[in-house]
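Appendix B, record 7
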Amino acid sequence: MEEAKHDESKLKFQLERLIFFSDGVFAIAITLLVIDIKVPEVEDFTDHNLLQNLSHTVFKFIGFIISFGIIGHYWSVHHRIFGYVTKYTTTLFWINLIYLLSVVILPFSSGLMGDYSSHMEMRVPYSIYVLNMCFTGFANCLIWIYVSNPKREMLTRKISKSRIKLGLYRSLIIPLVFFISLIISFFLPITARFVPALIPFVLHWGMKGLEKAANAQEAPIDEA
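Structure tokens (predicted):
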């Protein structure tokens, strides 16, 4: 039996639905991050006691800021990639859904890490958080691999192999940095929490050489 397919005139509409739905998921996920940060309750209403209780939420705030930045980054990457995608396929739908699954789990893993942030001897909360980040990074990478394949002709124009590799490497930066921070956490747990702060610098300056190589072969295109 022949597989049922959308009419050609509806494919663009289906692609737009996928993008709008993804935007909504990102918006909800990034909003849920802050729910885990509770206003501290104090028995003795003094500034000293309030500040003391607020100090206990420092690592929660750090986790929130990092997670907020990561989700914001992945949303911008998703936005740029799909700005060049011209075709809708069932495979792309499922790959994108897997990607969104990894995103909606982030508020949970971020909250888990935040709740146990004062117990640095515990390895599981941060490990789950890092695995979630790696899951999201690899799912993002999978989307880029799928849509950038020249044989599928899914982008607005053909791009060079250097440009494809650049997008691939950039997709793997965040999982790699978080994995390194996980290894460091077994020896220097506090230091490890600040390692992800290096991600913007690696993405901006660490890719300069590859960007020059890609730009030498074609006009720039913003991808992962």
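Remarks on this record: Residues 8 and 111 are 44 Å apart (CA to CA). Residues 219-224 have pLDDT under 50 and may be disordered.
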